[in-house]
Design a protein that fits this description.
The chain has about 220 residues and is mainly α. The chain is built from ten helices and two strands. The radius of gyration is 18 Å and the shape is elongated. It starts with a helix and ends with a strand.
Length: about 220
């Protein structure tokens, strides 16, 4: 039976409602505070603990993290690992295209010769392709995939996935790599196109192949 896209979203309404709450709060903040002032507001508040924490945690939105999760899922079910890789590739493709079309300056470039901003010494800074945030795309794509794969009895804990993704996105602003708008846009791409990929796969006959039921060192489940 063909799965309807809206039905798929309804099945994961706990995750989506929490994410939509984040979007609502984000849009209110963006409407109230101009883009560059919002960045400077975050940039002026820092401490040594968060410097270390966010430098480490920003890797939660790196493509290698999603790849490692996919490798781990090979031991659970091939189908889950494949879904993770395809969701990453699908969302990243859209992000890459939009980045090249927009070619927006990152905070480090935008504030150059305008106003000094704080950067963490030794952390590589980028100048272009600010919009949208690729790390945010990946973090929210991973959260969406995990929410989909999470057993029904644990759905009440999907708020943790949203929180972890939000923190990964915020790390990009804290580290002066992106503006707040960049992470919000990245989150939309990560969530929407991940669900779209899931929907495409659920309606593909090959995705339900018996071969994908297997797992590494475990046969079929």
């Amino acid at each position: 039976m063909r799965v309807r896209f809206l039905s798929l979203l309804k099945q994961h309404q706990e995750f989506l409602l929490l994410y939509l709450f984040f979007l609502l709060v984000a849009f209110v903040i963006m409407a109230a505070v101009p883009k560059y002032e919002l960045f400077l507001l975050v940039n002026r508040y820092y401490n040594s603990f968060f410097d270390v924490f966010f430098v480490a945690y920003t890797w939660a939105g790196d493509g290698w993290t999603m790849f490692l999760v996919a490798v781990g899922l090979v031991f659970v079910k091939y189908r889950y690992a494949l879904l993770t890789i395809l969701a990453y590739g699908y969302t990243s493709l859209f992000g890459w295209i939009i980045k090249r079309l927009m070619n927006e300056p990152r905070p480090f470039k935008y504030f150059e010769n305008r106003e000094p901003i704080r950067v963490i010494e030794g952390f590589d800074m980028h100048s272009w392709y600010s919009f949208p945030s690729g790390h945010s795309i990946t973090a929210f794509a991973l959260a969406t995939v995990m929410a989909f794969l999470m057993p029904a009895r644990y759905k009440k804990f999907t708020w943790i996935l949203v929180l972890l993704a939000v923190l990964a996105g915020f790390s990009r602003v804290y580290l002066s790599q992106h503006f707040f708008q960049d992470i919000v846009a990245g989150s939309v791409i990560g969530v929407f196109f991940s669900f779209h990929m899931i929907w495409l796969l659920l309606n593909s006959k090959w995705y339900h192949s018996e071969k994908l039921e297997g797992r590494l060192f475990g046969g079929t489940r």
